[in-house]
Every structure is written in structure tokens, then in C-alpha cells.
Amino acid sequence: MQRRQALCSLMGGSLLMPAILRDLMAAENPLAPRAPHFPPKAKRVIFLYMSGGFSHVETFDPKPKLLADRGKTHDSRKGIQYFKPSQWEFKRYGKSGIEVSDLLPKIGAQADDLCVIRSMTTDHTNHSEAALGIHTGSVSVTRPSIGSWVSYGLGSENQNLPSFVVLAPYLPYAGSQVWASDFLPGVHQGTRVTPGPNPIANLKPRVSPEVQKTELSLLGQLNARYGKGRATDPKLAARVQSFEVAWGMQQEAPDAFDLSKETDATLALYGLERGKTQGFAWQCLVARRLCERGVRFIELIDSGASTSNNWDSHGDMKDHEPRARNVDQATAALLVDLKSRGLLEDTLVVFTTEFGRTPYNDKPGAKGREHHPEVFSSWLAGAGVKGGMTYGSSDDHGIFVADKRVHVHDFHATILHLLGMNHEKLTYRHAGRDFRLTDVAGEVVKEILA
Amino acid sequence: MRFVLCNSFALLLGGTALAADLKPGDLEFFEKRVRPVLVDNCYECHSTGKKARGGLLLDSREATLRGGDTGPSVVLGDPAKSLLIKAVKYVDDDVQMPPKHRLTPEQIAGLEEWVRRGAPDPRDEKTAPPSVSTIDFVAARAFWSFQPVRDPGRDKSIDGLVSAKLKEKGLAQVALADRGTLIRRVTFDLTGLPPTAEEVDAFVRDRAADAYPRLIERLLASPAYGERWGRHWLDVVRYADTAGDNSDYPIPQAYLYRDWVIEAFNRDIPYDQFLRMQLAGDLLETSSPEARRDNLIATGYIAQSRRFGVAPVMHLTMEDTLDNLGKGLLGLTIGCARCHDHKFDPISARDYYALYGIFASSRYSFAGAEKNNRPKDMVSLVTKDELERAQGPMAAELKVVDEAIEELLADKAAFKFESREVATKGGTAPEGKRWKYPSVKEYDNAVKAMNKRRFGLLDKIPETESAYGVSEGTPRNEKVQIRGEPDRLGEEVPRRFLEILGGQAVPADEKGSGRRQLAAWIADAKNPLTARVMVNRIWQHHFGEGLVRTPNDFGKQGRRPTHPELLDWLASRFVESGWSVKAMHRLMLTSRTYQLASTDRAKNLAVDPNDELLWKWNRRRLDAEEVRDSLLTVAGKLEPKPTGAHPFPAKNTWGFTQHHPYTGEYATRARSVYVMQQRIRRHSFFGLFDGADPNATTGARPQSTTALQALFAFNDPMVHEAAEGLAKRAKNDVVQAYRLALARKPSADELQLARAHVKKAGFASFARVLLVSNEFFHVE
Fold first, then answer.
1. How many C-alpha atoms does A332 have within 13 Å on its Cβ side?
2. Tens digit of pLDDT per residue, chain A (450 long)?
């Protein structure tokens, strides 16, 4: 059934929708596309979030001095520490010659498209708080997620799919709060998709399409009768419309998640076995498909809150290896795939985590690393971002930011800027004041803008 | 050494060396090595006409020496002690300047040398200190909500006050709702449940003059009333069954507070008493053990404050206490004054810390957290004897362990940790007190060992009944936390009430926290906010919007009352009735305005599209609880009894961490108010239908309409089970299904439609459509 037809049936047979009602519905539809503050470079975001905190000095921030000073002591605020060099070597990639470690060689190979930020910093040393930080800008009280802000600011290009989709196999630290809309209208909250055969709750009809069609038709007729004499109430019209969207979602969402028509070459690029509905490769490929369908903000969380399978490698840095293997090829494939389809031109890809890991440990022979909010690395790629560059630096040992500090607020301000939004103007009135994603801080990192 | 000697004088006098007195070498040094660095790197945020971040200006000698919020920026002659130097050297994590990039080693060396020379500085300009916002309390009192409640007179009425406003605009109210609509409306409003067809029929037939008042009395007397109105209060106090720390520890006792709230509404406990019990129940005189028990449970209101982190982070929990107390009880955004004076309302940071001291002097029950995974400081509901009998010989040991833990914690609070080895510097340790552990690590081990002993004991001691509430702690005044940071302390503030509401002080000879006094100041008929805020909430739940449409904000940023006289008239009647909430229901529900139909009128819509003047009753979608409870009701599956305690895992198994936090959803057919709800993980169903936010006070719920809700209607098992239940109860009879679901008979046309559908798709399919129709989902 076509959308328009479905709507007509919901409105009661052949009745044309009165213009006033359509306007009311548009006013009532918080997901209607909205113009940004200025012409945007990026129309949508794919936000790759590595849960647990990956080690900057073992991925995107080479530190030769750490090798030279192996085992030497450093007097930190937490006492004497012993420097610990990266367990993986770094190589230069591409024309830009950006150094990336052997942990992520395939992402490294895309270096000329990456803008690697080596001077990220955040406000908390705990997972839950820092995970909230990178998602909401707040490490204490709950605030709306960046995806919710973007959905609120721009609406959605596809009314048959949610505007903010989170592909997450497990709950991350701080749980669903990282994609919650908090005080923003609930429609902007992230819709969590769990990899597997039934990715969205209640998406799968429990009755045959024929029965459902009859039900829709009866519902339309009952609602039309109830609507008589109540035509001026936009709530009723909006609810009628929501059934139309849900119907559309039932049709369109399964297709978005159906990878059967992807070619062998594409599957091979991502490293996805045909028929498999799990793993980061599945998440990345689905992300591309959602991107094609106009979903505004797509977040991919690689793992959850369990140390045994995330980046929180306290015990042994070797534990980074399976995590890297899970994301390296698929992430690189996503960039290649988006580029070949021309989507990288208006899609911003973000690769980040909640904090870095200490470049030292308090025991000389320790194999793992602890949490390190002082400095960490992230990268951006795609729409509006200069590729093949690094921005900012940590000091010789990767302990503090040495140059061009990028606080999480600055990072957020920059992402919003690329989407055509002024982070100081994207506000929502709540509890008597205007709230922002960037609180009262944040500056756009202009040097990385293409 | 000259500079060190005149250090304090220099601060007092704003520097003694005038430009003319500078040695030529110093002048040149300043111009070459200092001024350019300051201008290029610091003025952006620290100069007159730009910004004065942290209250600091660096564009004159005087201002540089005066410093900012954290004190003077230089200690003449001593670079190591100078904040300016520490900041540019990135010594501390919290102050690293400039924030974006570090100065070069040469630049830093230049500044150090400058300070060493005594900061010779030719900049004579006078710079006024960045303005310290001083609140003009006298002027502030003129704002409407701080004005005393002015009773327009008993002879006035809701309808009279509403009509007067309508007349001004030349508008008239629409007609009254029909009786079938009215009973559905008032039944949902008072109980959150749909009326039965029999109830509707009886009411429609009952033409006696007192039929409607009798209906109201029947509903007010039903236990379902407290379940509905208790839930409204639980929204305000952001009730949850878990603590909100990052492992979200369960609170098995929380339900006692929830049930008490429900019971309090059913018993119509006077609202002033209701508040006093929640703020200071443990300190009130009581006549019976039962009353004492209720008083203790009621303090769960304060304990419900959100917890943070892996161990208590009390300054954030306190903020949540004050935020809730402000918005919930007074309609004031007190939380805004944590970091600075409120920007719009007359609430100073000193006000905030004056109240903070009252709660910091109290002891909050602790549910457990990652680093300390057993409860502590629960409020015992059994007698001392019973408690001791239960603990038996372990009582003495537990006491020793508890005291040892107290001492360990006190030690940690007294000393500032320098590193893992040393913990001597700073802190609040009294003179002569020494850090007695060989290293911080040893200290941590001692804490761990002592906790382990405690857990061992707790797991052995048979549990006695307790509540999640508060008790008295060590009374103390708090210091202002500069910019809300607990380790940057300003002056001490004596405990007292908000200055704008009287500023009454906790008496100097008070031995307790001051909660008892605070409760009295809030639950005072003379307090201009308490009664207004509550009658506004009651109004809001009957009419869809409050007379003040920002129910949690009666300040400058909030909306002004649409009917100020009516608000005051209601507040006056409320106090006069002995703060009876049920009296308010009677007053509002018997008004003509409440009984209006939900029809529109073009002229009214054009003039007043949001119905601020109350010319109709606003149709509303069922809220989350009503949706679930109605579905269960019409399916004949609603369990009418409370659930009591939730089936949480046994305490001796608790080891929740942020990596493996507590999560649970417990299936039940009890009313929604009894469903277990976690603080940091929103319940999937209630989240979908705009249920209350368990993280923060919900003054008014949004009414969203989303495609995911429609997917729920299509495909959720809850709807499918309800439809099957309805089909069974209706014995596959369409007329009966209409009566059960919508409490009315179908029209001939509807009957025909339904029968045709049943033939094609079956009865359950028809029942599903009925249950997700706009008529089922709305009250008007």
C-alpha cells in the first residue's frame, strides 16, 4: 500500500484530507525536516562509539618517547608510574603519511580521508560518566544525547524510519541514557536496534498482511467517525498519521535490515558472512543502508559495559586485539563503500570513545592500562572535514594535551557546525532556561573544516 | 626578600610600586616578556570588556593581584605558590591555562621570573572588580509569586472568576459535556481507570440533583484514587526503585514510601502534614508506633535523591535534593544557585549552601554502590530490642566495625590525597592530626578489609524491617562551593531558609540538622508558594494545564498565572480546608468549568487557541499508566492488589558494577504504579508512552504521538493479550465488546462495520482495533 493511499483509508475512504488538517499535522510532526541555521556540509552522521576507552598511544597517537623511556618513572598525581610503550608498531599511511598502529591497519589505509584529533579531552575518569560525556556533554546529570539534539534540530528525511537509530548489541555504560532524549520530545530519543533477526521492537506483524490491512481500514473508519466534529484537534490527526508511519516502517524497516540483495563483493568488503545478522560488519553495512534511506543520526556501539569484551583493557593490552579485529575491516569498508556511492560527501563519520588509557602503569611490569580522560584520540571523516590531517597533539608521553585542546564540548560544537547548526543557537527551553548540547562552552574547531 | 615581606600589603593596597617607581630593567622585562604573553594568551577571557572567567581579570596590576574566585593570582616572589604559574604549568588537572594550548617553556619561564621579581607592573589602570551580582531582595519581593496570597473572598467562585476573564475577551464557554462523557472523564481523572458500562448507565439514568457529587464521593473513597493521585506525586518526587548510581543498586525498601504516598492520598492526610512528614518525619512527635513508622517511611522522599558514581558523590546528590525540593514543593529552580547566584530569581549561592547545610547534617540511607555493595544507614522500623535480638552477639562486632568505617571515612575527608603514597596536605584535618596509614593504598586496603568484615556480618544477621529514608547526622554549616566545585570552598553559611521567603535561621542552640524547622517553614500557610504550587498541580491534573503552565517554575522564567485571582482563591480555600486535597477535588470537579464539553468553537479558537481562558475542557490522550491499566481492565486481567516488595535478587549476592549493573523488569498484572521502575534505565513501556522521568522531577508529562507507539498498537503482546481477554469476556459479541471497552453501545453503522470485520478477520482482530482506536485512547 502506498503511503498516501494508506492515509486516505485511515481518513475514511475517499475523503480528501482538508488542507487545514495537513498543516496542523505538519505542525504536530516534530520529525518534519527542518532547515539548519546555515548551509550544511553534512546531512547525516554515523557515530562509531568504541565502548570502554581505547588506548590512544596504541592506536592513533604514536609516542616514540614512550619507547625511549620504557620503564622510567613518572610522578603523577596518583603516585609513581612507569612508562609503558605501545605494544603495536606504527606505520605511515597514504599521501598524508598519518601514523596509525598495526592494531588498525585497514582504518590506517584510509588515512587520507581521516582527520585524526590527538588532543581530545574529557571530564571524568569513570566509564559511565565519561560515556555520558561523549554522548551528552554532561558527566553528571542526565541530558539529551547528541543524536537527539541532531534529530530535534533537523528532523528526519524519512518519515518511515526513526530519525536516530542506535545499533547496539549490548547496553553500554550508563545504559540507554546515552541515547535518551531526556527533556527533548520523546520522538527524538534513539531507537535501539539489537543486531539479530528482529532488530526493532514490535516491527514484525503478528498477523498476516491481509488481516492487518483490514484492521487498518477498520481503524481508519472508526477514527474517522470519532473524528467527526473533532477535526480541529491535531492530536487525533497526528495519531492517525502515526499509524501510517508505523505501516510504512513495517514495510521499509525490514528492507533496511535485509542484506540479501547486497552483492558478494560488498559483503566481502565488510568481511560479513552471508546470512549473518550480527557483528560490527553487520552494523556498518546496515548503517550504510540507513544512511541511504535518510536516517539522520546513526550510532554504532561496538560492544557493551562488560570489561571482558570491550576496550577496557586493565589486565592486558592484548585484549585490544579482538576488539580491533571486530571493527577494523568493517569501519574501513564503511568509508570505502560510502565514498564509492558518493555518500561520504554529505555524511559525517565519527570514530570515538569515552576516554584514553594511561601511557603508564603503577607497576613496572603491568600489562594493562588504566582510564585516562586527560587526553585521547578520535577521528572524523567525510562531509566537510579535511582528510589526511592530524589535529592537536598530546605531550611527548601522551599524558596531557600539548597543543590545540579539543574538549568534548568543542567536538560536539564542531559536529553540529558541520550539520549547519550553531551550537549556541540549538537550544531547548526546559525548567526555566535554554539548554544546549554544549552547556555553556564549546568552540568549533575551524582548522579541520574543509 | 623585600617582595615576600610586603606580600600581604601588596594585596591589600593593590600593589605599592607605581609605574613611575619601576626599575628600568623591570619595566623592559614586563613589556618584552610579560605583557605580550598576557595580551595574546589571557586577555581573551580575562580582561575588561571581554570576559572575566572565574572572576579573574589580568589587564591591570590591581586586578592581577586581586585575583579571581580562587584567590590572588600571584604570590609575589614565589612562583611555585602562584596560581597563575601553576595554571600555565598545568600543575593541577582542574586549572590549566590557557585551556587550548600550553605556553612555550620560554613564555612560562618569563612569567616565573616576573613573579620572582615581585611582579613589577606598570599597568596603573583602575579596573573595577567583575560585578558580583547582588540580588535586590526588596525589589524581588514585588514579583507575583513572592507576594502573599491575597484571598479574593469566600463569596467568589471558580466559575465566576473564569467567566469574568472570558467576558473581557468577549468569549463564552461551550456547552456542558453529556453525562456519559462526564463520568468517563471524572473516573479517569480520579482513579486512572475507565468506568464500567453499568456505572455509566446508572449515572446517566440518575437524575437526582446530587448524582454528580455522589459520584465524586464514590470515586474519592475508592482505593484506586490514591493509586492515581499518589502516582502524580511520585512524578514530582522522581520516585524509582533503584538508586541511580552507575550500577543502579536496587532499593528493596523503596516501595514502602510509594505505598505510603498512595495511602496518604487515600486518607487525605493534610498536605502541610504530608510535607512535614517527608522532610522531617523522624523528628516529629507521634502518638502511636504506627504513626511513628509512617513518619520514618515518609522521609524516603529525601532518600530518593539521585545517587551518582561508584561511591557516594554527596554534593551531586544534595543538588538533586535541593533541585527537587525547590521545583517540587516551592516551584523554584533552587538548583540553579549551586554554582552562582540565580540569574533570574532571587536565590543566591549562599541561599543554596544554607539549605545544603541542613541536608549535609542529615544521614541518607545508602542502597549500595559498586565500591561498597551493601546497604548502609537504613532507617530501622523495629524497636531497639528487636534489632538487638536479631543481631544477637554480632551486634557488638557490627558496632565496632561500623565505628571503624566511620573513622576511616572521616580520615579520608580530613586529608587531601596527594598521591598514592602521601595524604597529608590540605583537607580539613585539625592541627596535630596525622595521617596514620603508610600509604594511600594501605588505606584503601584497610577500607576494603573493614567493608568485607561488615558484609560478612550483614549477610549473617537476619534481616529486620527497615526503610530507605534519612536520619540525623552531624549538624554542621557548609561552605559555599565556588562554582559548585566541592574542593573550592568559600565562606561558611549558617543554615537557614531562603532569604526571599523569610530567611529564618536554624536556631543557634538547635542540636539537630534543622530539617524540623525547614519543614515548618515550607509547610507554612504564610509561605506564598507552597499552597499555590500544590493547588496548581491539582488544577493541572483536572484541566490538562495548570493556571501556571510551568508547574515546577513559579519564578521569572516560568509562566505567569492565567488567572492569578483564581489561583489565590484556591490557595486560600486549600489552607482554610486544613490543606485537604480531597476538598480541592470537590471544589474543582463541581465547577461548571470542569464539566464543559471538549468541543471547539471557531471564534474561541481564533482568539485563544490554547484555551488559556478555559472555554472548553481539553481532550487528552491516556497517559502511560492509564493505557496499561485500561487494557488490563477491559481484558478482565487487572490484579487489583498492590505488589508489595519487588522480587529483587537476594542482598548477599549483590556485586553490581558499572560493567554489570543491576537490570530488571518484573512481569505483573498489578496497576502500573506498582511496576518496578529503575532510575537510570527507563522502563520500555513507560518510556514509550511518556511516563515520568525517574531521573528528575516531572512537573507535566509530554503527550507524544509516535510511530513506535503505533507499532506497539499493531504488534505488542500486551495489546494482543488484552484483545483476546476482551473477546473472551464479550463472548464474541460486538455490542458487549463496545460496552466493555468504551462503556457504550455501538451505533447501527458501527455494528455493521464490526460484524463485517469479524467475518473477515475474526473477533480478536476486531477487539484489537477497538482497543487502539482514538476513542479508547482519549478522554474528553
1. 17
2. 333 333 333 333 323 334 444 444 445 577 889 999 999 999 999 999 999 999 999 999 999 999 999 989 998 877 789 999 999 999 999 999 999 999 999 999 999 999 999 999 999 988 988 999 999 999 987 799 999 999 999 999 988 888 999 999 888 888 888 998 888 877 788 888 888 877 888 998 999 989 999 999 999 999 999 999 898 887 788 788 788 878 888 988 989 999 999 999 999 999 999 998 889 999 999 999 999 999 999 999 999 887 778 999 988 999 999 999 999 999 999 999 999 999 999 999 999 999 999 999 988 888 999 999 999 999 999 999 999 999 999 999 999 999 999 999 999 999 999 999 999 999 998 766 789 999 999 999 999 999
Distance from CA of B73 to the nearest CA of A (A): 22
* Closest among A292, A35, A269, A3 to A155, alpha carbons compared: A35
Nearest to B428 by CA among B439, B415, B444: B415
Say whether B750 and A250 touch across the interface (CB within 8 A): no
Helix %, strand %, coil % for chain A, to 5?
Answer: 40, 20, 45
* This prediction's pTM: 0.79
A432: nearest CB among B558, B696, B710: B558
Q: Which of B421, B704, B710 sits opposite A243 (nearest CB)?
A: B710
Indicate the angle between helix axes A127-136 and A408-418, nearest 10 degrees: 30
CB-based burial label for A3 (10 Å; 0-12, 13-18, 19+): middle
The neighbouring-strand residues paired with A164 are A297
C-alpha cell at A384: 566537510
Dig out the grid coordinates for A80 from the structure: 609513581
**How many residues are given for chain B?**
780
State the DSSP code for B52.
Answer: B
**Distance between terminal CA atoms of chain A?**
43
If one counts every other C-beta atom within 10 angstroms of the C-beta of residue B550, the result is 21
| CB A113, CB A382: distance < 8 Å | yes
The Cα A45–Cα A378 span in angstroms is 15
First to last CA, chain B: 83
Distance CA B72, CA B92 (A): 17
Asked if A204 lies within 8 A of B715 by C-beta distance, the reply is yes
Q: What is the ipTM of this complex?
A: 0.81
Compute the Cα dihedral for B508, B514, B516, B521 and give only its sign: positive
Three-state DSSP string of B170-183: CCCCCCECCHHHHH
Nearest CA among B663, B673, B640 for reference residue B239: B673
Q: Which chain A residues have a beta carbon less than 8 Å from that of B705? A: 28, 235, 238-239, 241-242
Q: How many helices (H) and strands (E) does chain B have?
A: 35, 8
Q: What is the DSSP string of A169-201?
A: SS--TTGGGGG--TTS-GGGS-EEE-SSS--ST
* Spatial distance between the Cα atoms of A66 and A69, rounded to a whole number of angstroms: 5
For chains A and B, count residue pairs whose Cβ atoms are closer than 8 Å. 218
CA distance B772 to A239: 10
Q: How many CB atoms lie within 10 A of CB B531?
A: 26
Question: Chain A 201-220, CB below 8 Å of chain B: which residues?
Answer: 201-207, 211-212, 214-215, 218-219
Identify which of B240, B359, B257, B381 has the alpha carbon closest to the alpha carbon of residue B306: B240
User: With an 8 Å Cβ cutoff, is A246 touching chain B?
Assistant: yes
A185 and chain B in contact, CB less than 8 A: yes
Report which of B399, B551, B149 is spatially closest to residue A432, judged by C-alpha positions: B551
Alpha helices in B590-706 (DSSP H): 602-607, 624-634, 684-688
